[in-house]
Amino acid sequence: MFVENLKETLNLGKKLSHKLNPQSIVLLQGPIGAGKTSFVQGIAKGLSISDEITSPTFALSHHYNSGKIPLIHLDLYRLEDASSAKEVFFSEEQEALQRQAILVIEWPELIEPLIDNFWKIKISYAKKYGRNYEIRDPKNLLTFS
């Protein structure tokens, strides 16, 4: 799916939020600057979260409780080894399960093999402008065309 601008990115995230349930896991892959955090802002908007959504690159995770469903936003970019990534992931996954939260993970490559049931969003730069999104649901069926 081609997305032309920030407004469309937010709308796509919002649209996806309506398909998510408590304990859903969303893996976001894409290069730096592709709009992963902007996509999460759209998900948060769809969940009626009133907090400002910012990148958790340095904090590793941000927790948002003000919406219909809690949201945990995790960013594994700074973690270089699988052991550290696993430790952070398992801790945040446990928190998400306890709080019935949605867990969104940027840079999930190190922990993806540990997860059985997840949404996967791949974002890539389009040729001239905008972004291409490939969105797959937990059953690995193309959800959005």
Kindly identify the CATH topology: Rossmann fold
Q: What structural class do helix, strand and pairing data support?
A: alpha/beta
The number of E-state strands comes to 7
Low-confidence segments: none
How is the biggest beta sheet arranged? 7 strands, mixed
CATH class: Alpha Beta
The CATH homologous superfamily name equals: P-loop containing nucleotide triphosphate hydrolases
Radius of gyration: 14 Å
Oligomer: single chain
Number of domains: 1
TL;DR of this structure?
The protein has helices at residues 6-17, 36-46, 82-99; strands at residues 2-3, 25-29, 61-64, 71-75, 102-106, 119-125, 131-136. With 145 residues, it is α/β, with parallel strands linked by helices.
How would you describe this protein?
The chain is of the alpha/beta class and 145 residues long. It contains 3 helices and 7 strands, in the order βαβαββαβββ. Strands 1-7-6-2-5-4-3 form a 7-stranded mixed beta sheet, sandwiched between helices.
Please render the helix and strand layout as text:
Elements: E1 2-3, H1 6-17, E2 25-29, H2 36-46, E3 61-64, E4 71-75, H3 82-99, E5 102-106, E6 119-125, E7 131-136
Parallel strand pairs: 2-5, 2-6, 4-5
Antiparallel strand pairs: 1-7, 3-4, 6-7
Helix pairs in contact: 1-2
